[in-house]
Amino acid sequence: MNIFKLSIKNLFYRPLSSLLSLLLLALGVSMISLLVLINSVVQDQMNNNLKGIDMVVGAKGSPLQLILSSVYHVDSPTGNISLKEARSIEKNPMVGNSVPLLYGDNYEGFRIVGTNEKFIELYNLSIENGSFWDDEFEVVVGKKIATKLNLKVGDTFVTSHGLRQTGESHADTPFTVVGITNFSNSVADQLILTSAESVWGVHGDHTHDDEEHDHDEEHDHDDDKEITAMLIKFNSPMNVIQFPRYINENTNLQSAVPSYEISRLFKLFGFGIETINLLAYLIIVVSGISIFITLFNSMKERKYDMALIRTLGGSRLQLSSMLVYEAIVLTISGFILGIILSRLGLVFISSLMESSFNYSLNSYGIFNDEFWLLAISILIGLMACLIPSIQVYKMDISKTLSNE
Amino acid sequence: MIKTESLKFSYDGRKYFDFPDINLDTGENLLIIGNSGIGKTTLLHLLAGILKPKSGSINVSGIEISKFSDTELDKFRGDNIGIVFQRPHFIYSLTINENLKLAQYLSPSKTSGDAEKILESLNINDKYQQKPNQLSEGEKQRVSIALALINSPNLILADEPTSSLDDFNCDNVIKLLKKQAKDHKAQLIVITHDARLKKHFKNNLNL
Q1: Does B101 touch chain A (CB under 8 A)?
Q2: What are phi and psi of B57, to 5 degrees?
Q3: What pLDDT score does A389 carry?
Q4: Are residues A148 and A218 in the same domain?
Q5: How high is the pLDDT of residue A239?
Q6: Chain A residue at shortest CA distance from B37
Q7: Mutual orientation of helices A258-301 and A15-50 as an angle, nearest 10°?
Q8: Which pLDDT score is estimated for B44?
Q9: Do B87 and A310 lie within an 8 Å CB cutoff?
Q10: Same-domain check for residues A235 and A327
Q11: Interchain proximity A12–B85, CB inside 8 Å
Q12: What pLDDT does residue A36 have?
């Protein structure tokens, strides 16, 4: 038996008030830590997917929608643009690299993106199994999809029209899996990639007799072909200031700058996040007050216990440290409980996001911000036990014992 | 051996308690008897080192404690003095066993007695694992005697140990205290207003 064990026993002797303080702190900590986690995971994911994309060109509409659909593959596309117009932008000397994107179908809710080898370069994709496509109706499947749908090289499947599983199916043009990518920790993990020609092929309206023509010949048919969007990397970062405006003012196309739109999105979120954050800190302070009240009240109940400890040879310091331990044990276990709760919350939110967006969050490590949170929790605990432990330190045991 | 000389104490600096000198040889017990409000508990607290005298000297087993600091007094008290309170006190969150273990922990420099043996001699060894709340009043008092004995004190101070007891139990408790003090080679000082105890003590001191 020692003072620390005594403190633990004391906490269990008042289970309800200990539990209340514990839950309040855990609630505050888990809210803050969940916010920190989601914020950092979402920003990480978003920024990771932004790499190499300075601008997106697509049909007129909401710029945020254009970014969400063609960079993050979560929203519906704004519409299609003609391949001819896209080509003319591609030729502009300010444009360094461009990646065409073509939507149309999905398989089990996962988007099939028609594109070319530049997409592979952009997301730095590598093949784990099989090869990249080199013929129509061959697809490369993102690692996450392959795992989830249990797809293997050589499997074939029929796609449905649109971006939802409920669209009509294209039974006459099945796709064959020729490759599965390695994990890239980007959106490519949850996409099915194929050539632009395949997507045009499925939708029949642009099929030609001479499908096997070479690149120059293909140019002749650009007039009536359409793509959904184009991801663009500039030659110089300075171009991001002029070029998007030039497109929006002088063409039928819309350009959007992902980094700008995403920071706008975070600003919109930001207010809500700030409010929840503030609320969470308030809960932590209330838990501190709850610990204070618990200790303060227990001092009256326990004054003879404490006088006894002194008569048995316990020092003032030992008595005070008993209360400090009680507060610190409460706050640290509240903090740990909060961290566990926040991880459970993340699992829940991640499964929610996975089912609605095919996005998942996976980061369960401890963040720097959470060490701050631990420090704040301990500080709250120390403040809560400050007055009670000083009072206990100054306690007049003679008076206490004479009042019996 | 317990010795006090011209002991004076005051709570407020105006009203002074003047205590008669005590001179008790090793192996002797003492009954201090007096009416309420005369400073009995004050004297007990002075002897226990819970209060410090305004003047005079207190010598317990050859140690002069009147000039000790608070920390020295805490240590002295834990090592040398066992107190039996009028109403028994415990750490209510701990079992009887843990209460005794805590008492041993608080006085580490002292080779303490065997908790089980002490409980056995007090006939309450079956209450080992119980919490103080589960005990009857009589059991509580015996456990509080065990708490006073656990660190093998040189001096046992008992504050009104019999005032709420009937004659039969009064006799039992005082005999028990005397026996335990003798078995543990401790001196016993009982402070009371209970005149029934006079016959049990050779040395009486009237306040």
Answers
A1: yes
A2: -130, 150
A3: 93
A4: yes
A5: 82
A6: A402
A7: 170
A8: 92
A9: no
A10: no
A11: no
A12: 81
Domain end position, chosen among A256, A285, A320: A256
Distance of CA A266 to CAs A48, A49, A274, A312, B4, Å? 16, 16, 11, 61, 79
Q: Which two tokens stand for residue A318?
A: 């030992």
d(C-alpha B3, C-alpha A384), whole Å:
45
Domain range holding A162?
55-256
A261, part of any domain: no
Give the pLDDT confidence of A367-394 residue by residue, as tens digits. 777 888 899 999 999 999 999 999 999 9
First to last CA, chain B: 20
Min Cα–Cα distance to chain A from B94, Å: 7
Q: How many domains does one find in chain A?
A: 2
Are A312 and B51 in contact (CB < 8 Å)? no
Question: For residue A26, is it within any domain?
Answer: yes
- Domain count of chain B? 1
Out of A37-41, A198-202, A228-232, A318-322, least confident range: A37-41
Q: Sign of the C-alpha dihedral, residues A361, A363, A367, A373?
A: positive
Let me know whether A33 and A123 are in one domain.
no
Query: B149: which chain A residues are within 8 Å (Cβ-Cβ)?
Result: none
- 3-class DSSP state for residue A200? helix
Residues A246 and A315 in one domain: no
Interface ipTM: 0.91
Q: Write down which residue in A194, A229, A256 finishes a domain.
A: A256
Indicate if A276 and A203 belong to the same structural domain. no
pTM, to two decimals: 0.74
pLDDT at B117: 84
- Interface residue ranges in chain A relative to chain B, Cβ cutoff 8 Å: 1-3, 6, 9-10, 12-13, 302, 304-305, 307-316, 318, 397-398, 401-402, 404
Q: At what angle do helices A316-357 and B70-80 cross, to 10 degrees?
A: 90
B78/A contact by beta carbon, under 8 A: yes
* A137-172 pLDDT per residue, tens: 899 998 888 888 888 898 988 888 877 666 677 777
- Confidence band for A360, pLDDT divided at 50, 70 and 90: low
Q: Does B50 touch chain A (CB under 8 A)?
A: yes
Of B42, B70, B107, which has the smallest distance from its Cβ to A312's Cβ?
A: B107
Among B96, B105, B140, B191, most A C-beta atoms within 10 A, so best to mutate, is B105
What pLDDT was estimated at residue A213? 42
- CATH code for position B22: 3.40.50.300
B45 and chain A in contact, CB less than 8 A: yes
- Asked if A304 lies within 8 A of B151 by C-beta distance, the reply is no
